[in-house]
Amino acid sequence: MARIDSKVIFVTTSPRTPSKMIPEIELLNAHFSGQKWDNDTQRAFMELLKEENFFNGEGANDPAFSARDRINRAPKALGFVILSPTISLTPAGFELVNSKRKEEIFLRQLLKFQVPSPYHRPSANSAEFWVKPYLELFRLIRHFGSLKFDELMIFGLQLVDYREFDEIVKKIDDFRVSKAQHEGNYKKFRAEYLDKELRDIYAEDIIAGNTKTRETNDASVTKFLKTKASNMRDYADACFRYLRATGLVNISHIGKSISIVPEKIQEVDYFLQNTDREPCFIDNEKRYVDYLGNAETPTLLSDNRELLEQKISSEFPHITIPKTATLQELKDIFADEIERRKEQILTDQVTAIKDYHLFDEINSTFEQILDNSLYDTPLMLEWNTWRAMTMLDGGSIKANLKFDDFGNPMSTAQGNMADIVCDYDDFGLTVEVTMQSGQRQYETEGEPVTRHLAKVKKETNKPAYCLFIAPNINEACVAHFYALHKMNISYYGGKSTIVPLPLNIFIKMLEDSHKASYVPEPKHVQQFFERSNELANSTDNEQDWYNGITKEALNWLNE
User: Fold this and answer.
1) Phi then psi dihedrals of residue 303, to 5 deg
2) Which residues of 352-372 are buried (b: 16+ CB within 10 A; e: fewer)?
């Protein structure tokens, strides 16, 4: 049981990307089901996780803590795993691992997550919680049509009791009026508004002098409020990401807002009308665990046969619904048609991209990424780089990020695979992107990038290279990738040709392909990476190699 010491909505923040818990709980169940969840199994779990390529250098100093951070938070809190007395998946956990429509499984569990619960009890200094946070946030978004990130962070997180819904609505209405009337800088206006709200939320702590935070000995009110604002930003970001995992919301990365997908409004209205807003089984852990792990509750629109048939007929009028089909068969028919529609949307996107119809948009998105002006910059970098590679040259370019039902980027690639895999018939190419910088870039990206490349070599049994893109390249990554050009390591499939390039250099390569008098071919890509091998063999240090290959990139299509 966790004690909550918070004055705003408490939600799960680990893992940051919800879909990443799926392979991890599957691994947990496969190897540790029926065992006790203790330091020994936690360390053993992390060792297995590392071998499965999901481990990105986090928690190496304390594997047991890292395991608890991954499993004791969202997987347990959302009812996917049971850790006591022994490890097991709940029915909801099995569905998450095996179901075609994982978005529906995430939705059911988010709608049941509540505070307080036997898992999460408020402390004496906490807010008086009485809420199912995600259910009420869906209601708030539906009420306004669209909710800005700032609005959810500053006001939505204050919805600690569902009975205060109208009060929070009024606060957002007042904020919007004040913002419309304000003629100065928005950032300053927002900062002043946030400071005022924080001082109201934490008034008792400030008066009592309870302003020391765990991370520092600084007990100043300024530091205290800055920490609370940072925590709220993390919670709001988690809300956006977990709501998006249901497939029911759109994220405007430019406007930094969230809204219900128009085609999904009927589904949202259904569960808003039919899901009990009251928390339940507060003092009965067994009944709460059974309730939370139930894969069939709460009732969704897709559980109503008549409404499901109407929705299938509305969205896919060409389908003849078999009268003898069971409800589950109807759900499968609907899921298959949604998947076919998505694949067609992505196919149409690729056609438009290859014809350079989206060149200006792709270029503009890269500029916004460099300016860090988008909501989820890592996701947008991965998605836009896939579009750029598709446009750059021939070949089959596969993005391993997750797309929603309408071909929009939903979440980044899982940790066991390259971000993008390009097949050029005679050779392959992996593309890895990151917004990380400094030493953190090397620690989290260096070794996994090499493993992903080795995996493609092994699976395709042909030569393969890797392009590593980031706004800025850390010197440790340059040294690491240079060394791998020269080291024949059987574990990695021999020598590894990995070329790190700053994003602005990659953008220049993209511009060159657009203005070239001919259509770039796979041979031009291979020539570039073979040139990297030549430079690595003819230089005696990483800086000379890096400077040389960067210069080659700036003129990569010059004959």
Assistant:
1) -85, -10
2) ebbeeebbeebeebbeebeee
Which residue carries 């507060």 as its tokens? 282
In the chain, the percentage of residues whose pLDDT exceeds 90 is 72
In sequence order, the β-bridge partners of residue 409 are 403
CA atoms within 13 A on the CB side of 118: 15
In what order do the strands lie in the sheet containing 464-470?
396-399, 420-423, 428-433, 464-470, 498-502
DSSP assignment of 74-137, as one string? HHHHTTSEE-SSS-EE-HHHHHHHH-S-HHHHHHHHHHH--BS-SSEEE-TTS---BB-HHHHH
d(CA 110, CA 134): 6
Q: Mutual orientation of helices 133-144 and 265-274 as an angle, nearest 10°?
A: 130
Q: How far apart are CA 505 and CA 547, in angstroms?
A: 12
DSSP 8-state secondary structure symbol assigned to residue 425:
S
| Contact partners, residue 402, CB within 8 Å, separation at least 6 | 19, 409, 410, 411, 412, 413
Tokens standing for residue 111: 């709608």
C-alpha to C-alpha distances, 425 to 461, 464, 509, nearest whole angstrom? 11, 11, 22
Q: What are the CA-CA distances from residue 302 to residues 292, 324, 331, 506, 538 (Å)?
A: 19, 17, 7, 45, 63
**Mean pLDDT, rounded, of the chain:** 91
Phi, psi of 4 (to 5 degrees): -95, 125
Helix (H, G, I), strand (E, B) or coil at 329: helix
Q: Identify the CA nearest to 46 among candidates 31, 61, 64.
A: 64
Q: pLDDT value at position 295? A: 95
The sign of the CA dihedral 13, 16, 19, 22 is: negative
- Which band of pLDDT confidence, cut at 50, 70 and 90, is reported for residue 59? very low
Lowest mean pLDDT among 179-183, 337-341, 445-449, 500-504: 445-449
The neighbouring-strand residues paired with 122 are 4
**What residues form DSSP beta bridges with 501?**
469
Q: Does the bond joining 122 to the residue before it have cis omega, within 30 degrees of 0? A: no
Question: pLDDT tens digit string along 338-368?
Answer: 999 999 999 999 988 888 888 899 999 999 9
- Cβ atoms 141, 265 nearer than 8 A: no
Question: Under DSSP, is residue 537 helix (H, G, I), strand (E, B) or coil?
Answer: helix
- Condensed to tens digits (0 to 9), the pLDDT of residues 394-442 reads 788 999 998 999 999 988 877 678 899 999 999 999 999 999 888 888 8
